[in-house]
Amino acid sequence: MRYEEFAPPQALAPYVHCLWVFEGQDAREPQRIVPDGRCELILHWRAPYLEQDGAGWTPQPRALFAGQLTRPLHLLARERAGVVGVRFRTAGSAVYLQSHVNAFTDRRLAVSDAPDLRKATDETERLALAAGYVASRLEPRFHDRQISRAVEELRRSGGRVPLDALASTADLSPRILQRRFLQAVGVPPRMLASILRFHRVFEALQAPGVTSWTEAAQVAGYFDHPQMARDFRRFVGCTPSEFLAAERGLASHLAS
After folding, report:
1. What is the CATH number of the domain that holds 44?
2. Is residue 235 in some structural domain?
3. Is 54 in contact with 165 (CB distance < 8 Å)?
4. CA 181, CA 178: separation in Å to the nearest integer?
5. C-alpha pair distances (Å), 13 with each of 37, 67, 144, 215
6. Do the bridges between strand 16-24 and strand 31-33 make them parallel or antiparallel, or are there none, so unpaired?
7. Is this structure's pTM higher than 0.85?
């Protein structure tokens, strides 16, 4: 299997973090997709994944918008995967949606007007079709620059900025910040801070000299291992050891 990220075209850069490609035979067991603080446009050019819901396992649409996650998403590959993803900046997807983002949190919505990547001849064309489609829908008046500043400060600090300081960064009152943050990002500031801290664990595991989950938890800003374990249950639905023991696939690439 192969996973690779690509810088967005200049016109998309203010709103899109990256484009990515995943292809090949994914793991044979369900993949736990964890919250990462960003929304995505997902375009399948091979068989779409199965998604676990209340009815069991249901095929995803060939093209879908995936809102913010606050809990794990379980996916299963039926055949060889072929996916192009457009990963928006944390406060960037409203420009594509042309609406408030919180209406899509923990939801995946079919996108009927997206290009059919099965008609593309190669990866370059698939990426160009995905980028061109997003560019055609951009409405910059939906970009909340004050909230973007607050998000950047929150990311820079690893989620450790108090709400009052965050509001000052955005030049907003705490109450207005929270309302507009939810609309532009899809989750409240405190939830995003928790997600960012949780993701720092995976980053810490790749740092020199970090050899255990306990050390990674300390680097990420947790008080102790049990506090990190609670977030694993919340965002992944299992223990750190169970996550590592699972067959590696799409989930391991998206979590790192």
Report:
1. 2.60.120.10
2. no
3. no
4. 5
5. 17, 19, 15, 34
6. unpaired
7. yes
